[in-house]
Amino acid sequence: MRKLHVQDLSLNGRRLGAMFSDPGLVLQVQALRGHRCQAFSGPVLLLQSAGLAKWHKLLFQAWRRLLPELRNCQVAGTHGSIFDSSHVDTLAGEMLSFMRAKTGTQA
């Protein structure tokens, strides 16, 4: 029987072993340990990477209960690549559209 080596698995092109030893990620998880989310009634924009599309319902369903004015849009790429030059125009356009709608401006 083969053994499963979790550290060798990958998610979105990144080895899980590398993610577990990423000091930035470790600090984020530690900071969130005692945090409890609360509802917010204002408009919120959720930018979702297309690379995790099959996980969206699982990952974001709880947010929909806390954020009744949640607007989401999907950006091509993975979580880490949505800021790449090939995706940044779409990302910026979605953010600008959201801000304009929120403030009621056209410019």
- General form: globular
Helix content: 40-55%
The total tally of domains equals 2
**Order of strands, widest sheet:** 1-2
Structural class: alpha+beta
Distance between the ends? 63 Å
Based on DSSP secondary structure assignment, what is the total number of beta strands?
4
Q: Can you tell me about this structure?
A:
- The chain has helices at 16-20, 23-32, 56-66, 85-103; strands at 10-11, 14-15, 44-49, 70-75.
- The protein is α+β, with helices and mostly antiparallel strands and 107 residues long.
- The chain has two domains: 1-36, no CATH class; 38-107, no CATH class.
- Helix 3 links the parallel strand 3 and strand 4 (70-75).
- The N and C termini lie far apart (63 Å).
